[in-house]
Design goal:
Layout lengths: L1 E4 L2 H6 L6 E3 L7 H11 L19 E5 L2 E2 L11 H4 L5 E5 L6
Parallel strand pairs: 1-5
Antiparallel strand pairs: 1-2, 3-4, 3-5
């Protein structure tokens, strides 16, 4: 069981309250987790990654076990603590702006 924590606006869009628990087929990777998330919650398709390229959206970041996983390859294994459900995968909306 993989645990995923989404930002508030994506929880609202998907009508979720709290973290998501997903069953992921095979190895736990960013791609497999996002595939499972989008299959369970179709409203999230295109919000975290592009519909066509499947690339992470520019202002979305992934964190787990106190590490930024945003630039890891999508098929790289997630940390063991995430794969076992001990730690969640955090999906975070990045902030941008200037003065």
């Amino acid at each position: 069981m993989i645990r995923v924590v989404l930002p508030a606006h994506l929880r609202t869009l998907a009508h979720l309250d709290g973290e998501v628990k997903l069953d992921v087929e095979g190895r736990a990777t960013q791609r497999s987790v996002l595939d499972a998330l989008e299959a369970c919650y179709p409203a999230l398709r295109g919000t975290i990654r592009d519909h066509v390229t499947q690339q992470r959206r520019p202002f979305v970041r992934f964190f787990a076990c106190e590490r930024d996983l945003s630039h890891e390859p999508p098929d790289a294994p997630l940390p063991d603590a995430v794969a076992t459900g001990a730690e969640p995968l955090l999906v975070v909306g990045a902030m941008a702006g200037g003065a």
